[in-house]
UniProtKB/TrEMBL annotation:
Lineage, highest ranks first: Eukaryota, Metazoa, Porifera, Demospongiae, Heteroscleromorpha
Subunit note: Homodimer. Binds the thyroid hormone triiodothyronine (T3); T3 binding inhibits enzymatic activity.
EC number, as in UniProt: 1.5.1.1, 1.5.1.25
Root EC class: oxidoreductase
Signal peptide range: none
InterPro entries: NAD(P)-bd_dom_sf (IPR036291), ODC_Mu_crystall (IPR003462), ODC_N (IPR023401)
One GO CC annotation: cytoplasm
Official protein name in the record: Ketimine reductase mu-crystallin
Any one GO MF annotation of this record: pyrroline-2-carboxylate reductase activity
Organism: Halichondria japonica (Marine sponge)
Amino acid sequence: MSKMSFTYLSEPDVLEAGLSLSETVELCTESLRQHGLKQIENPPKSGIHPQPDAFLHSMPAWVMEKNVCGIKWVSGFSSNVQKKLPSIVGMIILNSTETGFPTAVLDGTYITAIRTAGVSGVSIKYLARKDSEVLGIVGTGVQGKYNTLCITHYLPSIKKIRYYDAWAPSLESFKAQLQPLLPNVTFEPVATIEEAVRGADVFAGCTGKVTESIFYADWVKPGALVLPVHGGGWEPDVMTKFDKVVVDDWAQISVGMSQYTAHCKAPYAELGEIVCEKKAGRENDQERIINFNYGLAIHDMICGARVVEKAKQKGLGVELELMDLAKPIPLPQV
Ligand SMILES: NC(=O)c1ccc[n+]([C@@H]2O[C@H](COP(=O)([O-])OP(=O)(O)OC[C@H]3O[C@@H](n4cnc5c(N)ncnc54)[C@H](O)[C@@H]3O)[C@@H](O)[C@H]2O)c1
C-alpha cells in the first residue's frame, strides 16, 4: 500500500446505494443493542451555533463489534426551510479502526434523515401499543415525512394521521407525497398543535428548533407513545409527567437537554437497555411513555458503513488519493 486513498460518495451515490427504511431499522436496532451492551464509544456531541436557530454538531463514534468508527459533522439551520433549502445537512468520515486512516467520505444528509426515522422505528417496536390507530405529527418536513412512513410501516393499525405545521408549503407537500403511499390512511390537517397531540396513540414532534413550551404532557392520552424527534418545546418538568421516560443516551441528553434533566435524576431506561432485554419496554396499554432520542453517531457509522458496502457493490463513487505513503512527510518551509 503506497498510496492512501478513500472512497468518496456524493448524495446521488448515497441515494443510489439504496439503503431502505426497514434495513435502517435493523441497523439501528443493532447499534442500540451494542449501546445497551456498552460495546461502543459515543461521547456527547459538541457544537457551535453561528445563528440563533442553528447548530453545527461534531459526532464521533466507534461500534466495536462491527469494527466501524468515524465522525459525522452535521448542520441544522431551521430557517433554511423557508428558503426551500434542507435544514439538516451532514458529512460522514469513516476511519480504519487499525490505522485510523480515513476510508470513506460521504454525504450524511440522507443517512441522518433515514437513521433518525429508523430509531423511531425501533421505539415503535418496543414502546408503542400494537393497536395504535391515530398518529399525531407536528412539523411536516423531512422528519415528519420519514417518521410517518416508518411509524405506519411498523404500525399497520394506524388509520388516521392528524398533522400540523406552521408553514403551509410543508403541510401541503406532506399529504401530496404521503397519501399515495398510504392509500388506506385518512390524512386530517388540524388547526392547532394541541389537536395533533390530543387523542394520538403515537405522537412525533418534528419541528425545527423550538425553545418555548408548545407541547404539554396533560394533552397526551393514556397508553400513548411520544417521540420528540426535535427534543425542544416541552415543559421543563416534562420528564416527571410520564409513566416511563426512555432516552437514547442519558449522558448526552444530560448535556444537550439539561432544561429537562435538571428536573429528573435518571430515566426509566436507555433504549439500548430495552433492546438488549436488560429492561422491559411497554408493559401495559395504559402507560404513557416519552422517548427522547437526541441522535447518536453510532447509527451514522453503522449505516454509513453499510452504504459504502452497497455503493461499492454497485460500482458507485470515486477513489480519491489523500497521500503517498512511500514518501515521508517532508519538513515544512520555515
Ligand atoms: N434526534 C435526532 O437524531 C434528529 C436527527 C435529525 C433531525 N432532528 C431534528 O428534527 C427536526 C426536524 O428536522 P427536519 O429535517 O424534518 O427539518 P425540516 O426543516 O425539514 O422540517 C421542520 C418543519 O417544522 C416546521 N416547524 C418549525 N417550527 C414549528 C412550530 N413551532 N410549529 C409547527 N411547525 C413548525 C417547519 O415549518 C418545517 O416544516 C429538527 O429540529 C432537527 O434538528 C433530530
